[in-house]
Automatic annotation (TrEMBL):
GO CC, any one term: membrane
Cofactor(s) in the UniProt record: Mo-bis(molybdopterin guanine dinucleotide); [4Fe-4S] cluster
GO molecular function, one term: oxidoreductase activity
Residues of the 4Fe-4S Mo/W bis-MGD-type domain: 5-61
Any GO BP annotation: nitrate assimilation
Protein name per UniProt: Nitrate reductase
Residues of the full protein shown: 1 to 706 of 884
Protein's organism: Marinobacterium nitratireducens
Keyword Membrane: no
Highest taxon listed in the record's lineage: Bacteria
Length: 706
């Protein structure tokens, strides 16, 4: 076999940047990776996590055979058990007594089949995903403003903007290649300004002209204040508002009532008025303004309103979907966007269609020939596990994720799973907090073995190609789902033999609407042959007969997907975090570190990735540390919800007094740290259902002096 035959183009499985990877395989082993020069997201670059991918594909710790109640069994026996028990529970208690919980790590084809089985054939919409925890507020905000969950911008805008505002986004660590693109653009264009809005001074601030360390959770006030400022300084695009928008007067009235002037807004945000005015002046004067937002906005009990407050300012200035000018939501996981496309959220139908629209229900029912299409939205992540706890959901099938670790109030989720009648877990890893609670374990393939598509933050669909054979008896998630569907009596609708068939069906459904509205549309890809699918180059949706090469930006000339065709500005009543801190508490912010991913099942295999940060820590302002007698390097404990988390104290003036930061990755598989998400209160945004993972009240104490 020559060198060319051993190298395959695929996509990185970590963050939502979706970088192209060239993977070199020799003797059935992945021996090296490099950035794909032809992939538009990264043009040959990889961050440190991506460049260590070949160090993480060993089989240690893999789940290799199906297990029922701890015993290895055959696939037939495991699948019969899953299908039989799901069928019995549905017959006895109805379709809403069962649920699927999916992951932004699985492929679009896996998501499509899971969603079709649950919503179309079982007849429940109880199919949600861990992407609920990362970007569902941005989805809800886009839907409210644009009439569709559509990101207007593309990565090239980072290079074209004159002002880039990063809000609640530590891109240097969470989206490193985008940060590098921004850093390079800034070098080339000295006039470009970069501003970071974040309570914490992060690595991203190294690039910034200004860092505004606003009060945790006060972003909604800041953007309401900006809307007032733009109106007062005649910096609005009146023509655009008149032609393309609705709701402007109501949005401005709400903003003005809360934030009538800079002094009031500055006080609400805990910022010097001069800093705020500097930002407002720049935004008002800069046509090419790009606002990137991420978990710091989304993971909030008012995340949807915050995202709409950002979008309001862009709509009021006509800066949506234009080169270098847009609001731009960055997704956390590699396929959070792909999951949304196929209805992987409990409140959506496939292809961005809605339960509330009878035409959409008809379209999906007809297209799938679905015998019992769910008619109403299902349970969102936090509510879904509450229903498990209450015994209303009696069987849950968890695919490729670890909710007993990552959901807020994780200890309660664990207790709920312990009590649940049937817990099925498909995973590539044998031992996680969640697999320990499973009645039935199904070995699944992982990156390097999977074959399908993912969609990144700029709507770009890319192929993830299999490089290695599955170990043991591992199977693809879509195959496992089809096998269960067949045993439940739905075989005809799930007779796929290759992911290309699933993708073609997904693409065809995106163009199959009764009412003509096609926000998510890739119907031009519905006729791909298997060879064309295998060779599919990265492409941004929509991909239709009118735009067969894909679409870089959306809404540049108006034409929104609302019934009126106009974008909606929303009146936003900004509010502080839902759970106020008591006198003895501090505000805990959770997040990623640069070189780790989720619960570290893959990244902890690479010694060099552990070098950057090899133990859990708690970042504390000096003032809060000295009040509690804490010195740098001491072991400290955080308490909340009768749970605790232990980490090494890092005293930093990058924290605001009263605020803490702790990384989300560690659990007791690695140390006795405990799980930081167990401390997060399960309060959610009322629109999106996204939990408030950034502002949880906790107590802090020293455990052991250094
Ligand atoms: Fe992978 Fe994200 Fe790094 Fe790109 S930036 S190589 S997608 S982790």
């Amino acid at each position: 076999m020559n060198r060319t035959e051993c190298t395959t183009s695929t996509t990185c499985p970590y963050c939502g940047v979706g970088c192209g990877v060239e993977a070199k395989v020799e003797q059935r082993e992945l021996i090296a990776v490099s950035g794909d020069r032809h992939h538009p997201a990264n043009a040959g670059r990889l961050c440190v996590k991506g460049s260590a991918l070949h160090e993480t594909t060993g089989h240690e710790g893999r789940l290799l055979r199906p297990r029922v109640k701890g015993r290895d069994v055959s696939w037939d026996s495991a699948l019969d058990e899953v299908a039989g028990r799901f069928t019995r529970l549905i017959e006895e208690h109805g379709p809403d007594s069962v649920a699927f919980y999916l992951s932004g790590q699985i492929l679009t084809e896996d998501y499509y089949v899971a969603n079709k089985l649950m919503k179309g054939f079982i007849g429940s919409a109880n199919v949600d995903t861990n992407s609920r925890l990362c970007m569902s507020s941005a989805v809800a905000a886009q839907k409210r403003a644009f009439g569709s969950d559509s990101v207007p911008a593309c990565y090239e805008d980072l290079e074209l903007a004159d002002l880039v505002v990063l809000v609640g986004s530590n891109a240097a660590w969470a989206h490193p290649i985008l940060y590098q693109r921004l850093a390079r653009a800034r070098e080339r264009r000295p006039g470009m300004k970069v501003v970071v809005l974040d309570p914490r001074r992060t690595a991203t601030c190294d690039l910034a002209d200004r860092h505004l360390a606003l009060k945790p959770g006060s972003d909604g006030y800041l953007f309401n204040g900006l809307l007032t400022y733009l109106a007062d300084r005649n910096a609005l695009d009146q023509t655009y508002i008149e032609r393309h928008c609705e709701g402007f007067d109501e949005a401005l009235a709400a903003a003005r009532e809360q934030c009538p002037d800079i002094a009031t807004t500055a006080a609400l945000c805990g910022l010097p008025a001069a800093e705020l005015e500097w930002l407002y002046q720049r935004f008002a004067a800069t046509e090419r303004s790009l606002t990137l937002y991420s978990q710091g906005i989304n993971q909030s009990s008012s995340g949807t309103d915050k995202a709409n407050a950002i979008i309001n300012c862009h709509l009021a200035t006509g800066r949506v979907g234009k080169p270098g000018a847009s609001p731009f939501s960055l997704t956390g996981q590699p396929n959070a966007m792909g999951g949304r496309e196929v209805g992987g959220l409990a409140n959506q139908l496939a292809a961005h269609m809605d339960f509330a629209n009878p035409d959409h229900l008809d379209a999906v029912r007809t297209f799938w020939q679905a015998p019992r299409l769910a008619q109403n939205e299902g349970l969102k992540a936090v509510d879904l596990f509450r229903a498990v706890e209450a015994g209303d959901v009696k069987a849950v099938w968890i695919i490729g994720t670890n909710p007993a670790f990552s959901l807020p109030d994780a200890a309660r989720v664990r207790r709920a799973l312990e009590r649940c009648e049937l817990v099925v877990v498909s995973d590539c890893v044998a031992d996680t907090d969640t697999t320990r609670l499973a009645d039935i374990l199904l070995p699944a393939t992982t990156w390097a073995e999977k074959n399908g598509t993912v969609t990144n933050s700029e709507r770009r669909i890319s192929r993830q190609r299999s490089l290695l054979p599955p170990p043991g008896e591992a199977r693809h998630d879509w195959q496992i789902l089809c096998d269960v569907a067949t045993r439940m009596g739905f075989g005809e609708a799930f007779a796929y033999r290759h992911p290309a068939e699933i993708f073609r069906e997904h693409a065809a459904l995106s163009g199959f609407r009764n009412n003509g509205s096609r926000d998510f549309d890739i119907s031009a890809l519905a006729q791909l042959s298997q060879a064309q699918y295998d060779a599919l180059a990265p492409i941004q949706w929509p991909v239709t007969d009118r735009c067969p090469e894909g679409t870089a930006r959306l809404f540049g000339d108006g034409g929104f997907y609302t019934p009126s065709g106009r974008a909606r500005l929303l009146p936003v009543w900004a509010r502080p975090p839902a759970t106020p801190c008591r006198m003895d508490e501090l505000v805990l912010n959770t997040g990623r570190v640069r070189d780790q991913w989720h619960s570290m099942t893959r990244t902890a295999r690479s010694p060099r990735l552990l070098e950057h940060c090899d133990e859990p820590y708690v970042e504390i302002h000096a003032q809060d540390a000295s009040r509690r007698g804490i010195a740098n390097g001491d072991l400290v404990r955080l308490h909340a919800r009768e749970q605790s988390y232990i980490g090494r104290a890092r005293i930093s003036d990058g924290q605001r007094p009263g605020s803490l930061f702790a990384p989300m990755h560690w659990n007791d598989r690695y140390t006795a740290a405990g799980c930081v998400d167990a401390l997060v209160a399960p309060v959610t945004d009322p629109v999106s259902g996204q939990p408030e993972s950034k502002q949880s009240p906790v107590r802090l104490e020293v455990v052991e002096q250094h």
